[in-house]
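User: Okay, second chain of the day. Same drill as before: sequence in, structure tokens out.
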Amino acid sequence: MAPPRARRALFASASPAFLFVVVMGVVNLFADTTYEGGSSIHGPFLATLGAGAALISLLAGLGEFLGYALRAVFGWMADRSGRYWPMTFVGYAINLFAVPGMALAKTLPAAAALVLAERIGRAMRKPTVETMLSYTTGELGRGWVYGLNTALDETGATLGPILMTVVLLRGGDYRTGYAVLLVSAVLALAFLVAARRAFPLPSRLETTPAATARGFGRPYWLFMAAASLFAAGLLSFELVGYHWTRVGPFSPRWVPLVLALSTAGGVVANLVLGRLYDRIGLPVVLTAVVLSAAFSPLTFFGGVGWAIVGMLLWGVGYATQDTLFKAIIAGLLPEGRRSLAFGLFYAGYGGGWLVGAAASGLLYERSRVALVVFAAAIQLLSLPLFVAAARATPHGEPARSGLGTP
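Assistant: Same drill. Structure tokens below.
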């Protein structure tokens, strides 16, 4: 590790754009510690309140749908008002404090309401954060900005489940685990305050603006359709965790640790995919989709080793969602409508997630083979749409679309 003086010199020489990405990444590190730690035990906890597989999957899907669909509304509000920081603070507060609030939930409806509230808070702050980060992409590169920020996210998403594993192994129950996550929630808000004080106007970071589209063109809508199919096959961990607690191969106390291993792999995947995307574009997206589609058969039918491999591929799927898709959207942003563009895209993505979650929960109860076939096939069906989106991009303008031409 570098000595303190060398570290101070490193940060003193770093560009403001890079520092902003890092500080917001630290905010998201603690935020992900909170809600991914909670997510790692939601399934088993809801089961203790009487929920079955279909309800758990549907609730997770509804939460994701609201978390994505409402981004269009909040994105539009942010663009109209220009009040990016206030909406960001309110969104983080709801997103974070709903998780430790689960420790107080005594009934299934109360717990379900908090699960949905956490996703709604995330929907409120996501478009504004992605917009503020987009001001740094002209200098740093789209893939690298979202890859680095998401890698810090995923670091927190790794720490949260590990923390829950420690709590359970030391004899604590699910409510104790939720209560412990109050610490990371407070730390996330503390760093958010620091980010606001240091960068009151993130738009000033856009010293070399990236070219953006003037409207929502055909590539944008084709890409949204492709991403929605991809989302439908990216199963929630709540369903996976529920499956393992019923039939194995992991005992309940080890389920959060498996999620932590998956997200740790996702940290590496985000950095690698982000860098590769800036260099070669579309082929990286297509390869990541194929890898993600292989997750479900390994996870639902493999032993311990194959299930872990499957969850690492699941982490690649989330890296695709959180890094590659954002990098592409950043090249499709209409001028003056950035938050709306992010929010509208993820509304379509959330619709795909909701349909997939409802179908997955019902299929699980009837045939796990059918569930696996559905999850893998619908992700692979997105491939021709990604290619069509690339071909719809005007030749000679790959930078504007973020897709390039195949």
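DSSP finds 19 helices and no strands in the chain.

User: Thanks, on to the next one.
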